[in-house]
Amino acid sequence: MRNSTILVIDDEADYLELMKGLLQQEGYPQIITEQFPLNVMPLLEQHQIDLILLDVYMPKMNGLELLEKITQIYPQIPIIMITAVDELEIALKAIKLGAYEYITKPPDTDRLFLTIKRALDQRLLELELSFHRSVLSKFYPNKSNFSNIITSSPLMYKIFDVVEIFSPTNEIILLTGETGTGKDLIAKKIHDLSPRRNNPFIVVNLASISHSLFESELFGYEKGSFTGAANEKIGYFETANGGTIFLDEVGELPKELQGKLLRAIQYNEIYRIGSTKPIQLDIRIIAATNKDLTEAVEKNEFRADLFYRLNRASIHLPPLRERDNDVLLLANYFIKTANLTYKKNITGILDSVKEKLLSYSFPGNIRELENKIFNAVAKTKDDTSIIEMDFPKELLPEKNLSPMNSNLLTIDETVTNHILEIMNYTGGNVQKAAAILGISERTLQRRLQKIHK
Predict the structure, then answer these.
(1) Are 33 and 54 in contact (CB under 8 A)?
(2) Distance CA 293, CA 349 (A)
(3) pLDDT tens sequence across 148-184
(4) Helix (H), strand (E) at residue 38
(5) FRET partner for 266 with CA separation of 20 to 30 A, picked from 5, 140, 193, 363?
(6) Strands 279-280, 269-270: parallel, antiparallel or unpaired by DSSP?
(7) Which pTM value belongs to this model?
(8) Which residues contact 232 (CB under 8 A, 6 or more apart)?
């Protein structure tokens, strides 16, 4: 992100000139310097600032006071605190107030430049995600409920369309896709957007239920219906009445049990074991599988009549390797989550690790990515970056060989292309483009100037 604008704030004029020269020599041509803290807030209104280097000890307003003011209004701008005094208490307070990092004077240039690069990389990831979410809300004004799903993939946006079509209905839905693609998340989203949202959402993993317990788990039983039935039991279907039941791993259900599930779906009623009284059902059924059920039907492994019942409406979840740059967006999210879990402060990912993330095929999809990130954060001893990740070597080249991913773009190029696409969509109308992107016209004008330099 070499076209970023960096603001350096320090009361020493000589130091400002020194830092400006060092940063420009490192390849950051757009440097703004400011000696007086009271001038900073108006300056931020006038310029698009991507990163701030801020001194702690300054007259009239110290750096911590200014840090607090900036982060309240511009929380998206990473701020690196630089001071001549190495005080742990000051450093902790700065981080608590929202500083990205704390470095002592004179800064080790290698560490400083590495910290700046990581801060700008993280800023770009957040900016890209913000752009795509703003486009989602502008182009799809009724899709604000999808903002918690981290994606910038057009394939996922199309799935949002289908989810919105089917959610208000009572249609049975079959979710397909590889393991770890988020079928459970989409199932819950369908329920949350349906008229049943205030009623139960019951998840049943059919692969984990043994043959002998299938009926009692799903349909329940009456007291005394068999040895050991000391009390009545309400099954999953009855518990879900009025709401939604999510039948996960339906493709793993043995064929001898498929008929029992079909009957419950077909007649909208169940019988508890030991009872002759039917229980009427009012439930929404969502099923999911990572198997090709069409092939399973052809092989006589899955009942055709059950398949047709479940497949009234279907949604296919794409694998992570087909979701463009979502791997980096998700990795950044998982790092933040893992930081909270392990009480770490990992700030980014080494370029070499990013290359592996973008090259790896992720057979386990999002779940595998999450596990790798959490494992890497747990193993990392410093607070600067993820330095190690384990990838099977035989799987690394697979994604690069795919024609779909032969022209991977950097995040900076992706953001630039996105802005140009919106400008093309609006016929060059800056006002409309800025509204779609969710940024001010002035900010968009400045970004367009940078792009066309």
Answers:
(1) no
(2) 39
(3) 788 878 888 889 889 988 999 999 999 999 999 999 9
(4) none
(5) 193
(6) antiparallel
(7) 0.60
(8) 220, 221, 222, 223, 272
